[in-house]
Amino acid sequence: MNAKLKIRKVLSGAQAAAEAMRQIDPDVVAVYPITPQTPIAMQFAEFVNEKKVHTEMIRVESEHSAMSACVGSAAAGARTMTATSSNGLALMTEVVYIASSTRLPIVMNLADRALSGPINIHGDHSDAMLVRDASWIMLASENAQDVYENTIMAVRIAEHKDVLLPVMILQDGFITSHSAETMYLFEDETVKDFIGEYNPKYSLLRTEQPITIGPLDLFDYYFEHKRQQIEAMENAKRVIKEVFDQFSKLTGKTYNYFEGYKTDDAEFIIVTMNSSVGTAKFVADEFRKKGVKAGVVKIRVFRPFMDEEIVKLLKDAKVVAVLDRAASFGSNGGPIFHDVRSAFYESEKKPKMLNYIYGLGGRELSVEMLKKVYSDMVKVNEGIKVEQIQCLGVRD
Amino acid sequence: MRRTNKLCLKLIKKQNSAEGVFMEDKKGWKEIPIGGVIEKSGNALNYKTGGWRTFRPVINSDKCIGCMLCYLYCPDSSILLKKDDKFKFKAYEVDLDHCKGCGICASVCPVKAIEMKRETEFKDDKSSGHN
Known about the structure:
The structure holds 2 protein chains of 2 kinds. By secondary structure, chain A is of the alpha/beta class.
């Protein structure tokens, strides 16, 4: 462990997000409480109350207003952050699109929770998948440590002049957001130095340079602005790597779009994101002990999705199982499965691929379930037929 | 038939040039500011909204007492003034390229010097702001 990550703490994922926000000390935070995001806003509000930050905290009447206030604040040139979950994200979705298309580098923590209905407060990725095409950069977090580090890196990625897109940091509601674990923090100064000063390209408050933000944009220019957004996402691929490399100098760890665990010689690989990565690593180790070459790919960057990188990690495997904590109703498999399978279309060498929809509405993903996944992969390799897309842990 | 086609084409061309939608005249995505930002102020002048109008304000300058309420209330700065010896200023004309016909001017006028008339009464008027 590098000396820079030296403050040992026991924090939940939500507290880790709030700690990162405290050290970032954003100009404005506009947030509305929703389970399981609430402890992020609550903890941060305490920091504001105790004057540990200089942030102007705006208490709004809904998530639609929260994101709208963020758009206004970011357009004024302020470093702006927020957080939400599930239906809160659904309510703010209109403005989530406006934030990215207006190219405002807002950073938002998302404590993933199932979308209604029926109403449910527990963790799954249906909220994140709702906005996967919204032109936000999406970083996934296995645990509280990831939440903390991703949040700090997000500021640099979002504000980079070639990117200027908002960034969302995903963590599993309750499983990560409410579970305390040992983690390490930087000194405040380290974070301050890493993120630097924010010098916005445009500011509504810069009276010597009057500008119009958010004008009507019809068939004559809308398309060109969308083309710019596609380019910004392309640029993000490069910038994310640069920020990862600089950040790893502080932590001594390596970061990548997709992080392989024992994948070098693996024949059977699980691809997943957020908290299930930890469980998958544990089960992979169990199978390794039995002589099965098992591995795990952890998705750290879900958007932009790096086709060539995932192919590089998976191409030599015999069978791959993609885990989706969200259904994509009426399509063939879950959202991550679509991305991973599509990445292989041009590839000469491709593994067999299975898809498991799991953990909807916070249903626990047990070790036994993942043992079944690896066993299925071994079966497929032996020529035994296994249903390609299936629900894991649902009662018949 | 041929004549009609030609007329249609002429009308479309007029419409397009007035709205400025000829795509080949437009800038490419690398040349424009990101996020739809407009870097120059005062650009509302270039966006002609007069075509939305159903009712047109018609000013009777003889009745006008120069209170300038219409001028202050107009959301589109479309009331044009002229100098007047007695009242200093008088409302005398409407900027039909930008007036959307909301009728606020007629509503606030204390001497009823502004009357809202249906646009159809002016359909032959070339300066109507309707393209």
